[in-house]
Amino acid sequence: xxxxxxxxxxxxxxxxxxxxxxxxxxxxxxxxxxxxxxxxxxxxxxxxxxxxxxxxxxxxxxxxxxxxxxxxxxxxxxxxxxxxxxxxxxxxxxxxxxxxxxxxxxxxxxxxxxxxxxxxxxxxxxxxxxxxxxxxxxxxxxxxxxxxxxxxxxxxxxxxxxxxxxxxxxxxxxxxxxxxxxxxxxxxxxxxxxxxxxxx
Length: 200
Hints:
Blueprint: H1 7-27, H2 38-44, E1 53-56, E2 61-63, E3 72-77, H3 82-97, E4 102-107, H4 111-121, E5 127-129, H5 133-139, E6 149-153, E7 159-164, H6 169-184, H7 189-199
Parallel strand pairs: 3-4, 4-5
Antiparallel strand pairs: 1-2, 1-5, 3-6, 6-7
């Protein structure tokens, strides 16, 4: 007959995991909970795509301006962040469905862990990583960085909005619709930003 696990040992093990996770998150300079609303993040955003350079998975320095003329979805993530990992298949599908724009993953994590994870995940979009990845997130004007974090930029390098927390299909659909509105002239930049903020 199978014995039930000792509740004291289970509690102790969970406590050790929780404490370890706390120190990992603290060492990386972010918190995984208690994030402010996306509206608060959007109000703090810079207006134009900031300049930063991070290495891709091959070690090649890659600038934030490496995709001129393309709208960009910058997705900040980590291998230890469960909501981040849930987003990746959706982002891969979105990249396949919308080759006219660019998804860019930015890992705030250890490079070895990211490279190992990427080998299995088979990303269809660039993944950048490096010790200044946190600075790249801060360069968008977001004072409080939690993961996952996604920033939306149009083809003219205007920052349209940001979303703190797990992405869902409606966030990406809203971005695509907002870009279409800009392209057809039915939305100006102010209206586009307002639409992105309402849907976050």
